[in-house]
Amino acid sequence: MLLLGPLGFATPWILSALVTLPVIWLILRAMPPSPKLVRFPGTRLLKGLTDPHPVARHTPWWLLLLRVLAIAALILGFAGPVWKPAADQGLGGPVLIVMDAGWAAAPDWAERQTRALRALDRAGSAGQPAALLLADGRAGGQLPFLPATELPARLRAATPVSWQSQYPEDLDEALAAAPETGLQVLWLSDGLDHPGRAELLAALEARGQVSVIPPLRGRASLELVSGDHPALRLRTTDAGEPPVVRAVGPDPLGIERELARLTPGEPATEAGITTRTIPIDLPSELRNRITRFEIMGEPSAGAVVLADDRVRRRKVALVGDDRVSEGQRLLSPLYYLRRALSPTTDLVEGSLADVLQAAPDVVIMTDQLVPGDEHGLDAWVQEGGLLVRFAGPRMGADEKLGTEPLLPVRLRAGGRDVGGALSWGDPRGISAFATDGLFAGLTPPADATVRAQLLAEPSPELASATIAKLSDGTPLVTRAAEGEGQIVLFHTTANAEWSNLPISGLFVQMLDRLVQSARTQELTLDAESAEQPFWTPRLVLDGFGRAGGPGDLSPVAAVDFAKGPHPGAPAGLYEASERRAALNAGGPIALADWPGATVESATTAPGLSLRGWLIALAALLLAADALGSAFLARGRGGRVAA
Amino acid sequence: MSLTPGQLRAEAEAAAAGLPTLLLSAERLAAALVMGAHGQRRAGTGEDFWQYRPASSGDAVRSIDWRRSARTDAQYVRDREAQQAQSAVLWVSAGQGMDFSGGPDRPTKLNRARLLALALGLALLNAGDRVALAGQPPRLGRTQGDRIAEDLLRHAVQPGDDDPLPVGTLRPGQRMIVLDDFLGDPAPVVAMLEQAAAMGVRGALLQVLDPDEEAFPYQGAVLFRSGSGAATHDTRDAGGLRAAYLARLKDRRAHLTRAADQAGWHFGTHDTAAAPGQALMWLWSVLEG
């Protein structure tokens, strides 16, 4: 680079073309003006006449000046002028380029590459050796210093990864080849703090001068907050208008598209990070279709949350006697439950021991007692499961009903019939639901009646446990907490034997409310889950947040899986038998600080390039020249028109 | 060239639009001319008195002028001067070169030539001559003026630079008036003059020129182009060519004058900046004289 005061030229040899300007001046000057065209009948008399003393008319000086200025501006423009160019890295010292390569570096990866390539280019032209430290946590061992011309290929091939930037563990080993002093470090930071960054900065500053290039724009990350009501947490480094968060999934035709746009909540700023909570407040049918949430316009793995079991539909296990299904399907209680639940939930059926393996959110048992305790239903409820039980003739006839565990209230054996052939009175209707209860807002239809029920033993807790009752005040649905979980009992059957409630729309709404009230099962990512020691990747995100196949990625041990995304387990969707869990890159972020280092402002760093302005000026001058020429031609053409 | 009836009618209407103005200006010019019949200075059929002569044996009784005879004993016959209608043929060249005007304040040469031709034709008609455009039969009468005007306009601008007199239009005993700029090859004109002299046809050539063609007011680099584009001349210094051009123009006029004189014709020039009456007077005088 040639420096003339505050002006630098990237390719100064082009300036040598300026010596041709006087020649161009002469050529332009000597050029005859274009003749004006005159229609003249006497032309035939002129035939054969020769000009007595040809007069070369000069191009007007201002037109000449315009043209020469335009050519000069072009030459200067192509010489790559830079106003106040950035100070070059010092001469002689080896160059180390540190590139943060985590997901936070993805949004402006191309600009970073360009900047690093420019630095390598300069180092190469100055003959300095260079090294490239890609902070993606994959490279280990000693960092080799090579001639700077060998590195651009590697730099161009590098892509950001879907975990956060990671620096070498063993700094002494990594920097073994680096000189003790005089090292020129160019650190292309993603603007966020990562583990080990302060140590690396200190180690590098001890060896030379560190220039840091922060990213141009702020960063944003998206994280899923699991729980009963899953929400998203949006963290941004700039406190301005929040970016748009959208939910993407297949539409009813199976085409991947935007399903909804989510509205961020109130911002809370702490230490430069603005946090917003975004409730996933969507209809369950829509929510079940969502495959991913993403921040629009932020191509980064940290801005994508893949939906897994925590967001998706509840898993409901149906346990009951299904033997009648062969001939009389409509008599099976499970038939009504299936019809009511299958649109909005995932159903699992089987024996109690089988379904508990699938980690259901809800277990529904119809008309049976709990068969022993070896399957761990008790423990499952204690840990937060929702057990829904339906009464029935077999349950009512069982003599062990009085000692049955896992019931919200004690039941009286035998039950009662109302409105039957051998009883007085009519079938009972359902009374209105309490306005603050679980079923608040639902309206019992007038024709929904109950002909038989299991009665609860009177007790002080009975009133508080009842969440729905019949018109005579006897309980229809009771509920009780059990450890972390809860137990719900319908005092009537799930088929139409005792009541026509299961064939009314109310039944579906009640079940929907119940299932939605279930706590989602926390994904147990702990190492002790002995039955599923490996998670198999199904879908893997790259650093830009684009989904791809897992390739030849091997299954991830549960121990490693719990550590979050890292080189062995990139962000993506993983499966272990029936469970699906997503590893999402976004998480808590913190701003990086750079004590002792030179932070280049991203805007002024490369200096103000004047190339575009000069070429635009040349174009303007040429346009003015065209106008001027046209003006002259018009002035001459005046006589032709007459 | 074949014209559809629609085109013909459209062109005729366009041409007729210019007709009244042409006729009006031509009539005004013609009215200024002194009328005179072409007396043959001998006895014959005519309107005017020529002489009384004694009746001879061949004269019919009813031809005797009894009033004159009553004064003497002899019978006299009243002779009238023989009058013969002459025929004149007009030709206006309509080459591309004629469709030129050097300034907005001047008519094109073609329009001026048409005006002169029609005015002369009307004057000749008033004088009792048969007049027509070349190629048409000469006729007498007032309506012939309208027909001449129509024919003049119908003879539109030709694609070529020159529009010479059609071969074979000369008839013995006719008078011929040719209006052209005579800037093209003079050989056909000279040949026509020789042929006319052989047939006893008299007439006049009127060179109609634009002031620009007479003065050559051009400067600098100019690409000259004739009307049809057939001839071009590129020069860097038009001003330097003026003297040579004017000399050539003078030569051409001298050449034509000489050729006209030899054939008993007259050669005149007319400048479109000048008043048309001047040229008309000249034409009238050379035709009468």
Automatic annotation (TrEMBL), chain A:
<keyword id="KW-0472">Membrane</keyword>
<feature type="transmembrane region" description="Helical">
    <location>
        <begin position="613"/>
        <end position="633"/>
    </location>
</feature>
<feature type="transmembrane region" description="Helical">
    <location>
        <begin position="6"/>
        <end position="28"/>
    </location>
</feature>
<keyword id="KW-1133">Transmembrane helix</keyword>
<dbReference type="Pfam" id="PF07584">
    <property type="entry name" value="BatA"/>
</dbReference>
<keyword id="KW-0812">Transmembrane</keyword>
<dbReference type="InterPro" id="IPR024163">
    <property type="entry name" value="Aerotolerance_reg_N"/>
</dbReference>
<feature type="transmembrane region" description="Helical">
    <location>
        <begin position="61"/>
        <end position="83"/>
    </location>
</feature>
<feature type="domain" description="Aerotolerance regulator N-terminal">
    <location>
        <begin position="8"/>
        <end position="81"/>
    </location>
</feature>
<protein>
    <submittedName>
        <fullName>Putative membrane protein (TIGR02226 family)</fullName>
    </submittedName>
</protein>
<dbReference type="InterPro" id="IPR029062">
    <property type="entry name" value="Class_I_gatase-like"/>
</dbReference>
<dbReference type="InterPro" id="IPR011933">
    <property type="entry name" value="Double_TM_dom"/>
</dbReference>
From TrEMBL, chain B:
<dbReference type="InterPro" id="IPR002881">
    <property type="entry name" value="DUF58"/>
</dbReference>
<dbReference type="Pfam" id="PF01882">
    <property type="entry name" value="DUF58"/>
</dbReference>
<protein>
    <submittedName>
        <fullName>Uncharacterized protein DUF58</fullName>
    </submittedName>
</protein>
<feature type="domain" description="DUF58">
    <location>
        <begin position="51"/>
        <end position="253"/>
    </location>
</feature>
